[in-house]
Amino acid sequence: MTSPSLTKPSGPAGPSLTSVSASRKIKDRAVQGLVYLAFALAVIPLVSVLWTVVVNGLERLDPTFFQFSMNAVSGIDEGGGAYHAIIGTLMQVAITTMIAVPISVLTAIYLVEYAGNGRLGKVISFFVDVMIGIPSIVAGLFVLALWLLTFGFEYSGFAGSLALVILMIPTVTRSAEEMLKLVPNDLREASYALGVPRWRTILFVVLPTAMNGIVTGIMLAVARVMGETAPLLLTIFFTKAINNNPFDGPQGSLPTFIWEQAGDPNQNSLDRAWTGALVLIGLIMLLNLVARLIARRRSPADR
């Protein structure tokens, strides 16, 4: 008896592997082309904005801009600078970061490592989601009503930092929470198996593993709050003089400096506004670079 053939019949019974492979390659190349096209369309506005800011900002990018304030300088005058605004922005962002980051990271640790499905964890997670959608001007109005009008404190850089803290906490909390969730449970279980307490496991295993992602989230939050204008107008007001004390009196900042100078139709003021925007972008990029270097040096993979 003749045994049946084990070979696959050819013909119209079904498409060949070669044709299937070719069609998949065509679809793959088409999808890759669409992804590259979407990326190019997304980058074009960003490059256009950066190019416009750089071209216009270079007009006043000189040592005077970094060495002098706008005290006793009017809109029609040449010269003047943003020294007072740069100092104010750095102080306000530093205070905001020192307050918001510990609260946010500890909240994220609680939600991931301790809360589980408990009611308190759900309540905290709900309020974090609500705070993410709060408009920036609402944060400024809250600090204005509570800190300035109710408690009677005056305009200050610290009041502006409190408004920025409200905006920064939910962003850092949510990003840190997602990074902590990405840490494999095998690392935690291996640490527990060696008899290491939970708090030491979190401090020396979980956090270092998620450090790069946490730092990235922090810098995204810093970039957001550093460019906020509305809450600062309501809490720090603005001044042309140098104020190195963030707890006493109005203090300048780069966003309010740009807002003030851009509102003057004089060309000298517009040039200062463009340069202020360029300096603000440069500061954000510099802080991101420094944070990346610090996170890379502290990464467990590089030890």
Defining key terms:
0% strand, mainly alpha, 303 residues, Phosphate_transprt_permease, 11 helices, phosphate transport, MetI-like fold
Question: What's the helix and strand layout?
Answer:
Elements: H1 17-57, H2 63-67, H3 83-115, H4 119-132, H5 136-150, H6 157-181, H7 185-193, H8 198-226, H9 230-235, H10 254-262, H11 267-297
Transmembrane segments: 34-54, 90-112, 124-149, 155-172, 202-223, 273-295
Keywords: Cell membrane, Membrane, Phosphate transport, Transmembrane, Transmembrane helix, Transport
Protein name: Phosphate transport system permease protein PstA
Could you explain the architecture of this structure?
It is a multi-pass membrane protein. This is Phosphate transport system permease protein PstA. With 303 residues, the protein is mostly helical. It has a single domain (86-302), classed as MetI-like fold. It is built from eleven helices and no strands.
Could you provide a short overview of the structure?
The protein is 72% helix and 0% strand.
Which fold name fills CATH's third level, the topology?
A: MetI-like fold
The CATH homologous superfamily is called: MetI-like
- Major beta-sheet overview: none
Name of the CATH class: Mainly Alpha
Tally of individual domains: 1
**Roughly how many Å is the radius of gyration?**
27 Å
Note the run of SSEs as H and E: HHHHHHHHHHH
